[in-house]
Design goal:
six-stranded mixed beta sheet, Nucleotidyltransferase, domain 5, 16 helices, 381 residues
Length: 381
Amino acid sequence: MQERFIDTPEQLHNLCNRLAKSEWLALDTEFLREKTYYPKFCLLQIANDQIAACIDPLQIDDFSALMPLLENPDITKIFHAGRQDLEIFHQLWDTLPTPLFDTQLAAMLTGHGDQIGYAALVQKLLSITLDKSHSRTDWSLRPLAQEQHRYALDDVIYLGKIYLQLKTELDNLGRTHWLEDDFKTLTTPATYQIDPRQQWQRIRGRQHLKGVQLAILQSLASWRETVAMERNKPKGWIIKDDVLLELARRKPRDKAQLSHTRGLEGHAIERHGDTLLKLISDSSKLPSEVWPKEKIQRIRLTIEQEAMVDILMCGVRLLAKKQQLSPQALATRKELEQLVTGNQDLAFLSGWKKAVIGNDLQKILAGKLWPHYINGQVGLT
C-alpha cells in the first residue's frame, strides 16, 4: 500500500488520475465542530487497494479534480457511518457520492452488531487492533504528527477489505437489496437540508410541554437555529436548550420576567431580549390548529394493550434471533406501542424490515401467529 500526503492542487490532480480506474474508493473525513455550527473540514482520507492518501483541505481550495471520482457510477464509494462525512460533501461541494456503501449499515444486516464502530469492526473481521488515541485530536493544527497520519490513513486502508467481506456476506444471505433504501436516503440532498421550523423536535425535555407552549418552543428553536447558521456558531452558544424550555413554559412578558429565567445571562437578555419577547408574544396568540404536534404521540395504553406490546416484543426478539440481527435494529418498544394503537406509518412496515418482522408482527396482532413455549424453546406458530 502506497501512502501519500496531498497538499497541492497538482498532487491532488495526479492522485485522482491514479484513482480513476478504481472499482471502489474508501473515504473518511476529519473535522471539528466544537466552536462552529457547520463542521470545519480538516482532512480527507481516500484509498483503493493500492494507494491511500490524506488530502489537506486547509491547503487546497480547488477540489474539482475529485468530483469526477465522486460522481463516477462505476466506482463504489465506501464509508463507515458516513452521514456526517456526506454532510460535509453536500455543504462544501453540493454533491453526494454515488453509488455508496456504508459498512456500519451492512454490519448490522450481517449480524456484526447494531451501530458497531469502525475499530471494533476491523478487530472483529480482520483481527487488527487500531490505535484510537487520536480520536479527540485537533485536526486543524499543522503540521500533523506522523502518528496522526497513521491514525487517519488507518480509517480508510482497512475499509475496502471490510467492504469486500461484508458485500460477500450480504450476497450469500440474499440481503444486498435490503440496503437500497438506506443508501438512497444517504445520497438524497434533502437528507442534509435543515428546516429551522422542525428543530424543536430535537430538544430533550419538550415532552413536559403542551399546547401553546410547544408553539412557543417551535418559534424560539427556529429563531435560534437561524441565528446559529448565520453566525456559524453552536446553537448552545446562542441560548441553551433548557433555557428555551423554560421560556416556553413560563412565557415571560417583559425583560424583568426574562431576567428571572434560570440560565439566561444578562448579556443574552441585552442582545436578544426584545426578539425573545416578541417571539413568545406572537406564538402565544397562535390558534390551536397550528400548534405543532409530536410525530409520535404519547399514549396511555390499557393493560391489555401493554400485554400485547410485550407479546410483540417477544416476536421481535424471536424474529431477530432467526435472522441473526439485533432486535434494537428492527423495532423499538415505542414503535410497537404505536402499532398496537393503530399507527401504520412505521419503519418496520415497509422495505426490508417489513419482510423480516413487519408481516409477522401484523399476524401476531391479528391473532394468526402466536408465541409458544415447548421443551424450553420459544417459537412462533
